[in-house]
Amino acid sequence: MGATRECCEREFPARQAAFDHARRRCALLSPVRLVAAALAGFVAVGVPAASAVATPFAEPPSPLTGDQFRQDEWQLTALNIAEAWTYSTGAGITVAVIDSGVDATHPDLVGQVLPGRDLVDPKGNGDSDQVGHGTSVSAIIAGRGDDQVGVIGIAPKAKILPVRVLDAENRYDDAIVVAKGVRWAVDHGARVINLSLGGNGTSAALAAALDYAFAKDVVVVACTGNTSASSDTEVWYPAREPGVLAVAGMERDGERLWSGSITGKETVITAPATQLVGARAGGGYWRVQGTSFAAPMVAGTAALIRSRWPTMPAGEVINRIIKTAKDRGPAGRDATFGFGVLDPTAALTAEVPAVFDNPLDTSPSPGIARFGSAPAPGQAQSAPEESGSAPAPRDTTNDSGQAAAPPPSTPEPSHRARWLAGALFLISTLAALLTVRRFAHTT
């Protein structure tokens, strides 16, 4: 429809010019010459000759069609991205990918990646990726849409701001590095932040950095985590932080939660997480799955919304995403699907009442409520299928970083304390009895 409309708009001025030219010629001819010219067919007024009728321009190639990698992006059809692109493509929006870095030389990301920061290697700037995780995430958000080769992102006109916080093993040892990355991204123009990482512990430093992002009107998206990368079924932090769009993963049928997805009461929304194709660092592609790759679909959708309405506050962007989600499970928000499955087109078109605050930021931060000085380690929440099994989760029995609160007392000291208290009580009772008997004898 857009191409036909463009064709008509281009064709109309040409027809109008021809009509005006003919009218001017008519005005210059005498009545006799006008009749003769009309009979001779030299002047055509109102009815153009058949050969003058312009044929419509051919429809431009669809960005949804192309090579095998493009055809394998089933999520584009499932999310009806083609219609969403008629309203916005993400132009003018910067999305920070706080991850393992981004391969800026990948064909799908050339020209899409801004100068970033490397918080693991001081000599880097985030534009290289030893793991490949951040590259796959970035292409899902903003893979180029000017050809029919490789993968295209949800917001192909958006820009990626890379911030490396994950080491060569796809981990971070202290959440403070993620907190630094969040603050740096906010200060360098990010309107949306994607965090496809997390851990069991909490972090006061990261909680404060997220609050800083909220105060600066930034939308923050994080994955809920994968069961294969965790010894716990609790939604991972920072997805648990109030105000964050916590994204769980869906199966391809759009009806069932992906079996490997962690979910819980903090889950906000779901998006496709299985049988995905990802851009691989070094220029290739691989199969990926996990909530790490569901989250960037939500981040890309936030970029589309912010591009269409540049002055819309972050709270309203989030509200549009959750209010237009396709409900799954029990009516309303639930602990499995959150508000439902992401619907980008509805988020760009529906009538949604304005809000003044972030509708998700309604409870105390677990990062601050459990304040402590111990580091909170974490990792990326999923690994590409070809890369082998995901790294084994850390041993949380001896890793104090998994919980920021002081550890509870162990049972043995507790029993000793009870025996001691009982002995003191018995001694006090005997002393009291002796005192009473002495007092009785003296009286």
From TrEMBL:
Its main location: membrane. Residues 90-340 form the Peptidase S8/S53 domain. It is a single-pass membrane protein. Residues 357-415 are annotated as: Disordered. One of its GO terms (biological process) is proteolysis. Belongs to the peptidase S8 family. NCBIfam families: T7SS_mycosin. The active site is at 99 (charge relay system), 133 (charge relay system), 292 (charge relay system). One of its GO terms (molecular function) is serine-type endopeptidase activity. It is found in: Cell membrane. SUPFAM superfamilies: Subtilisin-like. GO terms for cellular component: plasma membrane. This is Peptidase S8/S53 domain-containing protein. The chain crosses the membrane at residues 32-54, 417-436. The keyword Transmembrane helix applies. InterPro entries: Peptidase_S8/S53_dom, Peptidase_S8/S53_dom_sf, Peptidase_S8_Asp-AS, Peptidase_S8_Ser-AS, Peptidase_S8_subtilisin-like, Peptidase_S8_subtilisin-rel, T7SS_pept_S8A_mycosin. It holds the Pfam family Peptidase_S8. Keywords: Cell membrane, Hydrolase, Membrane, Protease, Serine protease, Transmembrane, Transmembrane helix. Residues 372-386 have a biased composition (Low complexity).
